[in-house]
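User: For a benchmark we're assembling, each entry needs the component sequences followed by a predicted structure for the full assembly. Here are entry 17's components. Please fill in the structure.
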Amino acid sequence: MTNIVVLVKQVPDTYSERKLSDSDFTLDRESADAVLDEINERAVEEALKITEAGEGEVTVLAVGPDRATDAIRKALSMGAHKAVHVSDPALHGSDVIATAKVIAAAIRRLDSVDLIIAGNASSDGGSGGVPAILAELLGMPQLTHARSVTVEGGTIKVDRETADEGVTHLEAQLPAVVSVTEKINEPRYPSFKGIMAAKKKPVETLTVADLGVDASEVGLDNAWSKVLEAAPKPPREAGQKIEDSGDGGVKIAEFLAAQKLI
Amino acid sequence: MSFVESAERQALRAAAFELASKYGHEYTLKQARSGGKTSEMWAEAGKLGYLGVAVPEEYGGGGGGIGDLAAVCEEFCAAGVPQLLMVVSPAICATVIARYGTERQKQRWLPRFATGELKMAFAITEPDAGSNSHRIATVAHRDGDDWVLNGQKVFISGVDEAEAVLVVGRTEDARTGKLQPALFVVPTDTPGFTARKIEMDIVSPDWQFEIFLDDVRLPADALIGESTDTALLQLFAGLNPERIMGASFSIGIGRLALRKAVDYANTRKVWDVPIGAHQAIQHPLAKAKVELELAKLMTQKAAWLYDSGDDMAAGEAANMAKYAAAEAAVHAVDAAVHTHGGNGLTAEFGLGALVTATRVGRIAPVSREMILNFVAQHSLGLPKSY
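Assistant: Structure for entry 17:
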């Protein structure tokens, strides 16, 4: 029996043009289509695989504005059992620490959580800090950047892979926090029955006050870091052309190595 | 009244589009040109329940309606992986059996329609009876408890992939002696059943066939329903979904062409701006967008009427939707080809294949002219003209 909480985030579609708002340099949510972050689909997939192989319940947890409901429904349509949605205007502009505090408070309210699965980094904020901070706040072991996860009894084993450090093998006792990378799995498509069932699954909506978190700990004004200035990204530069005069292969290899791709 | 689809319908569209995008138009072209099928995609869609959305829940289906099935059909086409047999197998055959089949027939066939494991073709058109179903010459005679079927059918999609064909024939009414329609499920391995491929200048993984029925002996329960009394109703029950699906098919292909055209117009530069900055390019594409959206709205209305049980009103709307969608798709593809210039007819861009694919929509399942006849007579009250 493994009860799993999956952290999910609604983000602007990676394929659309993403912008910061002019007024406070937070994400301009109106400028792009909002979707469930793809890495979270993988996190949900992993949670479903674990519970399907044994027993347990998958709860998705989202912190975000009202329309994050759509991202939650997507996760529920994939097969997650229920959801908690923390939505509060006071959270606007919260940094990773405030976000992790809110998530920790929401998790403490749940009974018997064995495992928390997150994506390793969101495709919008991209700091990758929440899983580690959350583990510290909850006093749980953290197993980040997992490319594979195995749960056996009360033990979790993870193959951790990063570009700089290569592969390491981690093991911890549950409860624990895991963050997964894109290599973890291929997420399933929601079935039609899953889509129809998602409507009827329970979604608990909470405010910061419901969680007992002080409003002075969250929001843009209380963030530890601040965006002072933002400029649109420069237009894409023309690609680099390599003329092959016998050393084409070497040059391509050098280019890929410089990009840390090989 | 709402013109916006439910959250579930929208989620279904998004999921279907995403699944088909994994395969993509290039996959379809490659399979079609090498004589292959798109069966992996069909199988995956079936497992996810997308092909069985309209099959009743008690038989393992999704319990949704034709509106859901049409949404899936449109999204598959829009993503470049049309599934022609959706128009036939789950839309016509499964609907007819679900509405008019005996309990035994439902239990026998519906669970595998629900999963997509079963493909059933549909055969109505004959060499001498196209739109005129009163001239259908495929006749079933009773022989003891059995039926013996003789006749010929033409332009039947996907017979090579189908386990059985739902054949529209006629039989003698026991009381009046008049010939009246009757629908039979004919397994494709029944002795006396043969099919011959018709070579078409259409790039599609799904093929067209002629069917020959030569003393095809069928058990009593091959006849759909308890008797032939409901056969006309069965035909209407099947043909409205066919038009709605045909419309969705056209709209999806139109969307595919339009998306390709917009991408190309936004990136192709001949002088200093993309060609899409010019009104001569913009206006035909904008017009195509308007026509596709209007056709889609009518298709949604037809599906809604059908799913609400109003077969008569659905008939008019389904005819209009099918007409409008076929025209919109032909115009969209034409504009897309023209936007691409010479590239519009290269194999690489795959738009030439869409010219014939959308042209079919003007002819099948019923010609544009027969729809205008219907509208003139039934919607406007003009004399029957044929």
